[in-house]
Amino acid sequence: MSQQPQTSRPDHSEVPQEIVQLIAAVNNLPPEHLPIVQPALAQVVDSTRRRRRILGLVQDALSQLRLDMKYLVFDLEATRRERDEFRRKIEEPDQNEG
Fold first, then answer.
1. What is the rounded CA–CA span in Å between residue 57 and residue 24?
2. 81 in a domain, yes or no?
3. Residue 39, domain extent
């Protein structure tokens, strides 16, 4: 019994349209050529899916980093305001004495 690789029904959201077209073209090849081409095609599809997953993870990480940076900048500005206010309160009694 011949087993067709996963490339016969790819998830269209995981692979580019060009690869979907390539899969369709490969599946239309004569049966004697399929064992030669399908393993390489399966590797291409798998690596494409893996790259897309990695790209998604990197984009998520960058988004989280941007958000974290905004929080850090906000916290830094608030800390500076608090410091400046504290300094002003400390310096006020000194000015009244002199």
1. 29
2. yes
3. 13-97
Domains contained in the chain, number: 1
Query: Full-prediction pTM beyond 0.85?
Result: no
Does residue 17 lie within any of the structural domains? yes
List, for residues 27-36, the tens digit of each pLDDT value.
999 999 999 9
Which tokens sit at 57? Answer: 């993870």
Q: DSSP string of 22-80?
A: HHHHHHTS-TTTHHHHHHHHHHHHHHHHHHHHHHHHHHHHHHHHHHHHHHHHHHHHHHH
Question: Alpha-carbon distance 66 to 50, whole Å?
Answer: 24
**Structure token digits, residue 85:** 């206010």
